[in-house]
Automatic annotation (TrEMBL):
Family the entry assigns: Belongs to the short-chain dehydrogenases/reductases (SDR) family.
UniProt GO MF annotations: oxidoreductase activity
Phylogenetic lineage: Eukaryota, Fungi, Fungi incertae sedis, Mucoromycota, Mucoromycotina
Keyword Signal set for record: no
Protein name: Uncharacterized protein
UniProt keywords, alphabetically: Oxidoreductase
Pfam family, one: adh_short
Record organism: Circinella minor
Record has Transmembrane as a keyword: no
Amino acid sequence: MAKQQQQSQETTPSDHKVIFITGGSSGVGRSAVKLFVSKGHTVVFTGRSSARLEDAIKWIQPSKEERSRLYPLILDQESLESVRNAVTVFKSFNFPSLDILINNAGCSNPTLRYTADSTRVESTIFANTVAPWYLSMLLIPLMHSGSRILFIATGHHDPERKDFMMRMLNNDAILDPDMFNKLDGKENYTAMAYYKISKLAMIWISYVLAKQYPDISVLSACPGFVPETDLGREMPWLMQVIMKNVMHYVIPDAVTAHQSASEYVYYTTSDKLEGVTATFFSHGEIRKSSKRSYNMEEANKFWNLCCEICNTPEHIINL
Ligand SMILES: NC(=O)c1ccc[n+]([C@@H]2O[C@H](COP(=O)([O-])OP(=O)(O)OC[C@H]3O[C@@H](n4cnc5c(N)ncnc54)[C@H](OP(=O)(O)O)[C@@H]3O)[C@@H](O)[C@H]2O)c1
């Protein structure tokens, strides 16, 4: 906790940033919006509905001055059109540049389905990885040397992780050498398996992005186990109650949304991390991501798949 407090004090009031954070309407994202705005930053934050965004503002309880630095924005990551619209609205705010992008929004869809844009990947991979890739590519031209992009993944992308949750989870899909031909989920979809694949792919694109844009710091992180959030909203009712009220007793290193949000502040604003890129973090520390996440052949292949789905041939990498 002392470390968390030290991390969250590392920005100075004179160092105010323009921050774009997705999934700011609930959970860790919402706590991060509250922290960033309390530190004097300007925060554009997204959610899928204006009602959820308004509720988040009520929860944040900003002062009048803080409210003037909060920009709620609609973004549905199951639609490329919605991504484009969000970027258009962001541009209309006329900020001189974008300092920090946090790709935080995430979901785990309970049943197999597809977005209107693609059947090549199922909807969880689309929302958690393809859409953040597209959003990043549209926003990078507004960034500057030293800007940072943070991708919120999960430690559970790593099948070698041996914690309580991992022991309960099946890792066949994420270890499958033929995974690339199964991203549509038709053969073996389960919510958790494809959630993990989406987060592995997210770390892949963070590593490729870091290589493609050496002037920008591209980081990825696991937010820790944060049982109080709405991430399990699609689970059966009883599971949700257990998740929010029991799991933090069972899993000793569970953290609060505020603690996890303090780490977002550290990763994106600390001077100590200036120039650090292509790096994965967990609990505020640099960690190794899974073995497969360093397979750049697969990473580049996934990147090119994003280019194809988003119809951006100019970003294709020659393999
Ligand atoms: N909680 C944990 O233990 C844990 C562990 C590892 C990783 N994570 C990751 O941490 C991040 C934050 O999750 P959280 O726990 O704070 O969950 P949360 O409370 O459910 O918040 C998720 C946020 O993402 C938005 N979102 C969900 N699906 C979306 C979609 N298809 N398009 C656009 N926005 C969407 C939600 O917006 P709406 O309000 O519109 O629904 C909400 O703002 C996620 O990437 C998650 O995978 C969480």
